[in-house]
Every structure is written in structure tokens, then in C-alpha cells.
Amino acid sequence: MGINRVIYGIRETVVKDCIPIFLLRNEPVVRDNSISTNRINEAEHTRWFTGALSNAAFQFYTIVDEAGGFSGYIRYNAIKATAIVSLALIRECRGKGVAKNLLNVSLKRIKNKLDIMSVTAVVRIDNIASCKLFLSCGFHFSLSKKISGIQYNEYVYAFK
């Protein structure tokens, strides 16, 4: 008996992704691993989301399964010569190796879209899966720091 393997991809984020991204951003595990752990209200999210879509410093990708179903997001926020990356997957995709390939694909895409030299990931120190993910994608440990009393590692990916 064969294994049914779902194929995932990324596409540009569009307005219809607002609510699925809002719901994912408010999942407890996503909030717990974010720098700001407070719940996000829908009006605040919608304002932020609309602004992000129209901001040239943002590159926002929606992760989809082969049927086009929402599976997560990867976003980049360019600040001077670097971009901060944020990634979240729906529960069904976590721990299955989905993120690595999609993060690598998105890195190739943003290299041509943003005027940056590097990408930085800020990861909660106890989020071992994300720490391993970024290292496996060519990011290098940069430093540890406390934000609001919580320890984070910073990983940096330098474009060649």
C-alpha cells in the first residue's frame, strides 16, 4: 500500500487570505512562539494585513496544498539591508518537513524582489523544531537575546 503524500507550494498572498492567516496567527502554539504573545483582534489584524499587502517592504507568501487549501504563510519584512522572516503552518503540516522546501523556495523568490543582503529569523530558544529548520536552510546562529523576559536566538541567512 502506497503512502499518500501531499504536495505543498507557495503563492503570493492575496486579500482572501486575510481570515485564514488571522485564525492561524491566533492559534495558541503560534502565539506562544511569537515575540508578541498577545491575541490579535480581527480589526487590528485586518488593518495590519491590508497595509502589509500594499507595502513594498513586505513579501507575503501563502502556503497551499495541491488542492489550493490554506496551509500557512511565510512573510518577510525588509528593514534596510535585511528582512525579518516569519513562518507559521497549520497544525496538520507541523513536524512533517513541509517548511524546509518552502522556506528555501521563498528565499530564492525574495532575493529578486527585495533589496536586501540578508534575512533574519528570531526564534524562541525552546522552539527546537524552528531552530533546526533555519539552520538546515543555511541560516547561521548570530546571537541570543531576551525580549520581554523570554530568550530568543537570532539566525541570519546571507545572500551570496
Give a brief outline of the structure.
The protein is 30% helix and 34% strand. With 160 residues, the chain is an alpha+beta fold.
Main attributes of the structure:
160 residues, Aminopeptidase, alpha+beta, single chain
| Coarse structural class | alpha+beta
- Beta-strand percentage range: 25-35%
The 3D shape can be described as: globular
As laid out across the biggest beta sheet, the strand order is: 1-2-3-4-5-7-6
Total number of helices: 5
Taking pLDDT < 50 over at least 5 consecutive residues as the criterion, the unreliable ranges are none
CATH class: Alpha Beta
Largest sheet: 7 strands, mixed
Rg, Cα atoms, Å: 15 Å
Number of domains: 1
Do you know the CATH topology? Aminopeptidase
What's the CATH superfamily, by name? Gcn5-related N-acetyltransferase (GNAT)
Q: Distance between termini?
A: 44 Å
Helix and strand element order: EHHHEEEHEHEE
Provide mean pLDDT, rounded: 93
Corresponding CATH architecture: 3-Layer(aba) Sandwich
The overall strand count is: 7
